[in-house]
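ligand=2-oxoglutaric acid
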Amino acid sequence: MPKDNTMTASGSLTATQLEQYQKDGFVSGVRVFDSQTVSELRSAIETLEATHSGGADGSSLAQYFRVNGHIVIPLLAKLAATTAILDAAQSVLGDNLLAWSVELFIKEPGSDKTVSWHQDITYWGMGETNDEVTAWVALSDVSVEAGCMRFIPGSHTNGIVGHTDTFSASNLLSRGQEIDGIDESNARHGPLRPGEMSLHHGRCFHASGPNQSTDRRIGLAIRYVTPEVRDGLPGRDYAMLVRGVDELQGWINIAGPQGLFTAPDLALYQQILRDQEANLSEGAEQNVALYDTGRINT
Ligand SMILES: O=C(O)CCC(=O)C(=O)O
């Protein structure tokens, strides 16, 4: 790892990291948790898997892990407010940050699940904004062998490009949405040690391969936006203010869970799901949720 590819004391990106993010549309290897903390976090996630194997309120745990878990699982909401992650996101987006989505991307050892080349914001109803970034935190060793992400440097300078919905069974994206004709010769892997994260732009082309390692590959993706994102867009969406202020109130600001799977939080979860699916489905060939939650852990 290059010498300046480390956290500054405040957690902000270094000038080199920020420059790389702006030029390439992603930056990798940013340390946010020490090894002790990351192993405690992994164990908290795995404890939840053991204690809630039947899910909650009629939905599987995979559903909550994959879609908006921060609404009903306090640990995920707390992670979205981690100081070091926010410092880095602030370097990219400025002082006012909302967490729009928190998701776990888990590939079991030997899993053939992949993620096809895509841009994140294609179906998110946010237009082509630059005011969004994904912090993707490794909670296990996310090596090339384990199926780390790959990125096409500079691809975020494209607008939103066409995606084909393949509905491929081995794809972790529910539509198997895929950008055709990617030239992979420039693709760069973004392997992460446990406790490191990458940041990527919502228009940066990215993908990931199968997990050919003997350990689980666990990634936490937190999508941050600014108050400005909804400016001029129809309707409102939900997000949790995690730093600064939201004077524009274009988002419906949510407070975060009252406890683990409480009744009011579960009701809000269902409400958000209904409202977001209406948005996300726009432009799809079939009316489906963004992610297939039924087969993510196989
Ligand atoms: O975990 C992966 O392999 C893909 C994650 C991804 O596409 C994302 O976070 O935007």
